Amino acid sequence: MDCSIFQVYEDEIQSLEEEIKLLTEKYEDSLQESTFFSDEEIVMSIKSFQGEFQQESKGCESDLKAQLASLLTDFSFLMKFSGIKFTSHLKKTVERTGNRTVKKHSLAGNCHSLSFQLEFQLLETQNKENVSAVVTDLSIIMESGEDSDMSKFVSSTEEHRDLLTFFRSLSSYGEWYEHRRRTFLHFKVMF
Q: Which residues form a coiled coil (predicted)?
């Protein structure tokens, strides 16, 4: 996924945390003021507060649902377009210091009829204005069979730590691999 998508979620989480803080302060203020009101006034105030909160949360919830639906649609399109389908993803923060974070990712998936597994570490450094991410360690496991060209490609990709090139090439290779497999299967059945 793109870092900007994660940033959108981070911003939304930050916004919700601020909203919770404000609502907590408002609630605490109303508790202090409640000593001056009758029981009926307190109940009416609570109902009013609950109604406001429910209306605000419904608006945020519907926005998040719309964003999620849009992201899922985009993700589905990308899977159909590229032929790459991820079956699992694990992420673990290995190191966190000041403006530097190292996260370990493990991905598994399929590209047409080829399966693959990736493990890589991502070094994220944050400046005042932006976040940069660099792949620091990459390991690829593929069922390439006897294809020496694919083995060379995988070795080169691991050496250069270039995930974008890997996925682009995997998409093309997987598509043509599937065409070759079906063609040979067709001729095998005929003879």
A: 6-33
